[in-house]
Amino acid sequence: MTLELDRRQRAMLAEMNIQVWSPEAPSFPVPSGRVREADAPVPAPPASAGAASQAPVGRSPSAAAAAGPRPGATLQPRPSGIETMDWDSLQAAVAGCFACKLCTSRKNTVFGVGQPPAAPGDAPRVDWLVVGEAPGENEDLRGEPFVGQAGKLLDKMLQAIGQDRRRNVYIANALKCRPPGNRNPEPEELAQCEPYLRRQVELLRPRVILAMGRFAVQALLASTEPIGRLRGRVHQYQGVPLVVTYHPAYLLRSPGEKAKAWADLCLAMAAVARPG
Length: 276
Ligand code: URA
Known about the structure:
Layout: H1 7-15, H2 51-54, H3 61-67, H4 87-95, E1 113-114, E2 128-132, H5 137-142, H6 149-160, E3 169-173, H7 187-204, E4 208-212, H8 214-221, H9 227-230, E5 234-237, E6 240-245, H10 248-253, H11 258-273
Parallel strand pairs: 2-3, 2-4, 4-6
Antiparallel strand pairs: 1-3, 5-6
Helix pairs in contact: 1-6, 3-4, 7-8
The chain binds uracil.
């Protein structure tokens, strides 16, 4: 596939150390060892700030208050009626969810971030939905997805395709709460969270979904096949084209795979451009 790139996009790709026309591994320095989101802690909001300013990005103060940890909490069934909720009710339902044990350790739920809605209660209108795996430590503190090292790379990837996390894009995770110690999500946790993600997709109706990493793929495609086998073609989720790609945290550890991630972004761009 060929793609016209303007100078800005080429500059962004150069910054990501992606050589557009060559499959060779890019060569940018990455920290040695496993890159965890916890490597770049984000300061907590100042204690003196008012309640509204302490609310994590994109969430109302009341939602923030509901979301805090409940050590030893008795788990409660997920709220009913998710499939008919509007955007605000869905966000409040996530903030008040105590359906799996992650509610006992989370600091905040992480609903998502992106283009603001045109009117209260409306879902944002976006072409792109990026789905990651689960909040890490920084995301749990801030209540916003992808704010650590992987998030920085994701932002560069979005810039390379002329997008921005707050315009025409929405970013969410398969899990809305942080698994303690950044352990892998458990099947029960993914199952409990799946209806929230499903409803987010229904309300957003994006033109493409970019599923990043194996747990996003498990949640959306119910597949445990490796990413390498699923990428390179367009899948469907609820009638929305879905492209599978590597998780940015994996790309930080394996920069040689960035050329493939770029190819995946090109595939997703083509899906967005297709008349629909
Ligand atoms: N990794 C994810 O999958 N999601 C986040 O929000 C942060 C890191």
